[in-house]
């Protein structure tokens, strides 16, 4: 296509000639679409950016000066710049390091760790106030998850006795913790 023909169409577009704009689109859109597609790598994005390119051409046609160079490179530069701007405007894809920053830290903070350690020491002190076999039964039931029946068999006591031991031990622990 002759550069003079494109330059003439751009001149008419500068005067808001819609037929000239349509002719310019028909003659240059395949080349400008290819530029957008090569940069963006996605047909849908390239089509959208191509529309924006032609809006800019419509708005800037009066700025084109044939004396500064041929028309097609001017049009191609608009398409190229618009495509690059679209890439820059996209939200960047997070790298692995960036996604690591977005992960919530599930570990307790220093203050919470200190509180948990303090509570642990208080529980240990209260457990020392219980008889040794009662304290071990509480640990076995509530830390190791043994059932009343398993504890009754382990300590060779009736099931209801084991329930009473645990209930009374928990009451004593609660009273100690409340002090």
From TrEMBL:
Q: Which residues form the RNA polymerase sigma-70 region domain?
A: 24-91
Report the Pfam families cross-referenced here: Sigma70_r2 (PF04542), Sigma70_r4_2 (PF08281)
Q: Name the InterPro entries on file.
A: RNA_pol_sigma-70-like, RNA_pol_sigma-70_dom, RNA_pol_sigma70_ECF_CS, RNA_pol_sigma70_r2, RNA_pol_sigma70_r4_t2, RNA_pol_sigma_r2, RNA_pol_sigma_r3/r4-like, WH-like_DNA-bd_sf
Superkingdom, taxonomy of origin: Bacteria
Entry keywords, A to Z: DNA-binding, Sigma factor, Transcription, Transcription regulation
List residues of the RNA polymerase sigma factor 70 region 4 type domain: 121-173
PANTHER family for the chain: RNA POLYMERASE ECF-TYPE SIGMA FACTO (PTHR43133), RNA POLYMERASE SIGMA FACTOR SIGZ (PTHR43133:SF62)
Q: What family does this chain come from, according to its entry?
A: Belongs to the sigma-70 factor family. ECF subfamily.
Please give the NCBIfam families that the UniProt record associates with this protein.
Answer: PRK12514.1, sigma70-ECF
- What's this protein's name? RNA polymerase sigma factor
Q: Which organism is it from?
A: Rhizobium calliandrae
Q: What is the lineage of its organism?
A: Bacteria, Pseudomonadati, Pseudomonadota, Alphaproteobacteria, Hyphomicrobiales
């Amino acid at each position: 296509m002759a550069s003079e023909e494109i330059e003439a169409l751009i001149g008419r577009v500068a005067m808001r000639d819609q037929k000239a704009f349509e002719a310019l689109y028909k003659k240059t859109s395949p080349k400008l679409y290819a530029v957008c597609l090569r940069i963006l790598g996605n047909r849908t994005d390239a089509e959208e950016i191509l529309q924006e390119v032609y809006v800019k051409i419509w708005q800037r046609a009066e700025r084109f000066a044939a004396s500064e160079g041929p028309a097609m490179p001017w049009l191609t530069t608009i398409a190229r710049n618009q495509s690059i701007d679209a890439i820059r405007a996209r939200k960047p894809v997070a790298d692995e390091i960036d996604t690591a920053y977005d992960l919530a830290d599930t570990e307790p903070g220093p203050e919470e760790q200190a509180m948990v350690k303090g509570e642990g020491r208080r529980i240990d002190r209260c457990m020392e106030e219980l008889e040794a076999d009662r304290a071990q039964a509480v640990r076995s039931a509530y830390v190791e998850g043994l059932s009343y029946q398993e504890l009754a068999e382990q300590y060779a006591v009736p099931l209801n006795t084991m329930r009473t031991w645990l209930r009374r031990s928990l009451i004593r622990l609660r009273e100690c913790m409340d002090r």
